[in-house]
Amino acid sequence: MGPPFELPATVLYLGVAVGLLLGMLVLALRIPVVESDPSIPTKGQLGFGKFVDDFRQFRSWLPQLWSYPLATMVDMFTLSCFSPGVALYIYDQKMVDLGFGISLHTDSFFAFYNTTNMMGGLLGRYMSYTLKPRHPLIYTVFNVIGVLLLLTRVPLLAPLSTFLVMLGDGLIYGTVSKHVDTAVPKEFNLTALSYWLFIGDFGSIIGSNIISYVRDWVVGS
């Protein structure tokens, strides 16, 4: 959105929309359908019918998973409300004063902020498949610490705050995905993932809808 391209936000949103549509086409037309995997019994039923049947058999998969979306709710709340969320309102001047007589243009500050955001997510996803399996609620401590660092309103701590939030995000997503693959019967895989993501996204809905109230609390109206 800045130099040298100077793209308006509308172009970026349209680009994302086109990318999503292309992804749907690739999934529908180019990804092969596995017809006869003996490890995934479908009982001759696919689509919405299987989804309903899986929910009727919830005792076969829900007990292994029911509490895991709670971690994702916390994670998505911190992402949508604080990372970046409220950070965009805390640092909304032309320059960001880093202290020690150093100031940085806000665009450059957020470029670095977003880079640490990305690195936290990558590291968390990598670590989630190397660490000993734990309940993902444990990893929300990174999200909470990241939010607290942001609320100090110390510019030098803001990149670290988003790194920790995204570290928690990566650990939670990877841990839940791995748990579904190893603990949930394969025939219920898609329904279990859908349940996890559906419940978890309530956190992002809440977080995105209260940003204005949190902003008023943190920086004033």
Could you estimate the helical fraction of the residues in percent?
55-70%
- At the first level of CATH, the class of the largest domain is Mainly Alpha
User: Strand order across the biggest sheet?
Assistant: 1-2
DSSP E strands, number = 2
Structural class: mainly alpha
Number of domains: 2
Summarize the helices and strands and which ones pair or pack.
Blueprint: H1 9-29, H2 48-56, H3 68-82, H4 87-90, E1 95-99, E2 102-105, H5 106-128, H6 140-151, H7 158-183, H8 189-209, H9 211-219
Antiparallel strand pairs: 1-2
Helix pairs in contact: 3-6, 3-7, 3-8, 5-7, 6-7, 7-8
Detailed description of the structure:
With 221 residues, the protein is mainly alpha-helical. The chain has two domains: 1-31; 45-219, Growth Hormone, Chain: A (Up-down Bundle), CATH 1.20.1250. Helices cover 63% and strands 4% of the residues. It has helices spanning 9-29, 48-56, 68-82, 87-90, 106-128, 140-151, 158-183, 189-209, 211-219, and strands at 95-99, 102-105. It is globular and about 65 Å long. It starts with 8 loop residues before the first helix and ends with a helix. 31% of the residues are buried. The mean pLDDT is 89.
